[in-house]
Amino acid sequence: MTDYAGLLKQGTAGLEKAGVEDIELNARELLGKALGINCRSRDFDAALSRQIDPQVQMEFENLCKRRTEGEPLQYLVGEWEFYGLTFKVGEGVLIPRQDTETVVDTVLKKAPKDRKLTVADLCTGSGCIAMALEKHLDCRQLIGVELSDKALGFLQHNIKLNDSKMQVLKGDVTLKQTAQQLPVCDVITANPPYLTRRDMENLQKEVTFEPRSALYGGDDGLDFYRHIVINFKDRIKPGGFFAFEIGAGMEEDVMTILVRHGFENVRASRDACGIFRCVTGYKK
To answer: Does the reported pTM lie above 0.90?
Structure first.
């Protein structure tokens, strides 16, 4: 083994032996990280025939070892793509996932196109939902609400990375005083913690690396939906709407919470796998 193509093959075999899924994607991303080259570029393919630098080999093998121990690929690479944008991620912030793009798709279909909008994204984390919406909507004002200091660090980096005009509010969405600091909004989105106690006891190894505060939603997973609807319902304009990401099988419960608090035209939308992933409800 003298070139990077051989090193890549070796790394792929090691990941496969450890039971890692999508071994080719993982190996290419990790070698690209070690080389400092985008693994989807022509430069990466050209580099595969080059003679191995021992420092790069050591870095790649270390990354592969950490991956086989369960550390998320996204954390190891340090960034991930969401809705065509790049977001800095790492320990302390929830990883952007394709499932969450359903929230963006749903809001883009339902949001008014005839005026400038005020949009707030609660539990914003990396800011991926908010900044994806900003690229496709005419936003007068965009506010992201986040409590975690670690997540806020990544958020500030992503605002610069994506040339966003997003404003940041540090606050706990379970408190009424946080809601009172927001303007009245056309749309409020949220991907809140929604895993149940049972879910938390049966997490995949990779997910255990993500912050518990961004995952656990109480015994039944619904605590944050209850708090958000109660605290923020007065921060939505008449005709405006909530858009929530939900866990599989939670659509009826979350829709019921919205209906009980007077929201109408409450609907659930499916993700690419056919699972209900987003619930919306309009203020009368």
So the answer is: yes
